[in-house]
Design a protein that fits this description.
A: about 110 residues; mainly alpha; Serum Albumin, Chain A, Domain 1; B: about 220 residues; two-stranded antiparallel ribbon
Chain lengths: ~110, ~220
């Protein structure tokens, strides 16, 4: 019983200090709720596998792990290292396709 | 409209970046896991050596194609191994238990399992026999040389005639089981029919390899 008196203040106090949810957040939530984010992710994954992007990136990971030793590399290191490469390697047409789909979703959400 | 589109495009780019990051993390974690658990065969060989190996394999295959060797009895695969056109390994057929050469397995299965004429006749005889067996209340004597009906009747009906009578006999025996009430009176007829179809089966098959479902 005592413990409940000493518990931290209820979230009401905290919430006022936080910013209003940004536009980005609202859209993100809408994306996830409607399931469109999953669809887009699957579409992107499929396209990237088809064009060989995934295999190239995996080869990069392997090269990195060979250099730094198999047991030494963490997932974080890998991610930090390959993210810029991965972003640059995406073919333009795939990028355009995805962007178009996202934009049509945004318009359908009627902002 | 213009400003709206611009806003959209930066938003869209941001969302795209999110999704792309997620996919990249997936790739990284999968590669990491494969390396850590020892799945990844390519971790050690890699790069120049792999290029060399694949170029080598392609060269071997290309050679044989260029020389017109594809018509020869042996085909070469990417590892440089030779394979004869017809497989020569011997194994047991799972249907009849005979040792079969792998290259001749397909035609053997056709005969063994039932596309061919003989197999169909055998199958029909089998069905009719099992139908009669179900209809009869008393169990039949064993099929192999033990049963008295078999030996007494076979002397009456010589093998040469039975082969021509087979279609009619099997039809008759097909009709009989439906008539359940008049079993007793048709007993003798049944015996004749059974014996004739048995003779047919035994004549058309190799006795050694025949198997009954009741075994």
């Amino acid at each position: 019983m005592r413990a409940s008196i000493n518990r931290p203040p209820t979230p009401d106090v905290d919430e006022e200090k936080r910013d209003e949810p940004t536009l980005q957040d609202i859209i993100n939530i809408k994306l996830i709720e409607s399931g469109e984010k999953e669809n887009l992710k699957e579409l992107l994954r499929e396209r990237l596998i088809e064009c060989g992007w995934r295999d190239e990136l995996k080869a990069q990971c392997r090269a990195l792990m060979r250099k730094r030793g198999r047991s030494n590399t963490t997932v974080d290191e890998l991610v930090r290292n390959i993210t810029p490469k991965g972003r640059a390697m995406v073919p333009d047409d795939i990028k355009a396709e995805l962007l178009q789909r996202i934009q049509s979703f945004l318009m359908s959400v009627a902002l | 409209m213009g400003s709206g589109e611009v806003r959209y495009s930066s938003l869209a780019a941001g969302i795209f970046g999110d999704i792309l990051d997620a996919v990249i993390v997936d790739v990284a974690s999968e590669a990491h896991r494969a390396a850590r658990l020892g799945f990844d065969r390519r971790l050690n060989t890699e790069e120049e050596e792999e290029l060399r190996l694949s170029a080598q394999a392609r060269a071997i295959v290309g050679e044989s194609v260029a020389n017109g060797d594809t018509s020869s009895k042996y085909t070469i695969d990417v590892f440089g191994q030779l394979h004869p056109a017809v497989a020569s390994e011997i194994f047991e057929c799972m249907n009849c238990g005979r040792p079969i050469v792998a290259g001749r397995f397909a035609p053997h299965l056709e005969k063994c399992m039932g596309k061919g004429r003989k197999a169909r006749i055998r199958a029909n005889a089998n069905i009719n026999l099992s139908q009669q067996r179900k209809v009869r209340s008393s169990p039949l004597p064993s099929y192999f040389p033990g049963g008295p009906t078999h030996t007494s009747v076979s002397s009456r009906t010589p093998p040469t005639q039975t082969s021509s009578l087979t279609p009619e006999d099997t039809q008759k025996s097909g009709l009989d089981p439906n008539d359940g009430t008049s079993e007793e009176s048709h007993d003798d007829d049944d015996k004749v029919v059974i014996a004739t179809s048995m003779c047919t089966s035994l004549c058309t098959l190799n006795l050694k390899y025949y198997r009954f479902p009741c075994d």
